[in-house]
Amino acid sequence: MPVGHDPEHVPVTRIEVLDFVAEAFDDVPTERARILEVATRNGARHALLDALRRLPDTPLSEPAQLWDHLGDVPVDPGR
User: Fold this and answer.
1) Rounded to an integer, what distance in angstroms lies between the CA atom of residue 36 and that of residue 51?
2) What is the domain extent for residue 32?
3) How many domains would you assign to the chain?
4) Is 46 inside a domain boundary?
5) Taking the model in full, what pTM does it have?
């Protein structure tokens, strides 16, 4: 792997979050534990799991509610 391309140093993005947790919203409401379980099963990297651990342990009814708690997560790494 080229120097500077360590995936753990690439910022987590909203697209990445949704790629790994969308199925957690198949049965709503969902909660942090379910979101983390789905992300882990789908192979999410440590940086993404760390971000998801910041979610409150309250029910979420739709993916858009993630951004209420992860507002600092950019849409893409350049933003």
Assistant:
1) 10
2) 8-69
3) 1
4) yes
5) 0.84
DSSP H helical segments within 1-79, as ranges?
Answer: 14-21, 32-41, 46-52, 66-69
Token pair of 5 as six digits:
């391309």
User: How far apart are alpha carbons 2 and 75 in whole angstroms?
Assistant: 25
Residue 14 forms part of a structural domain = yes
Amino acid letter for position 64: A
Contacts with 53 (C-beta within 8 Å, 6 or more apart), sequence order: 32, 36
pLDDT tens for residues 15-58? 999 999 999 999 989 999 999 999 999 999 999 999 999 999 99
Distances (CA, A) of 33 to 2, 10, 53, 68, 77: 35, 24, 9, 17, 26
- Residue 2 counted as domain residue: no
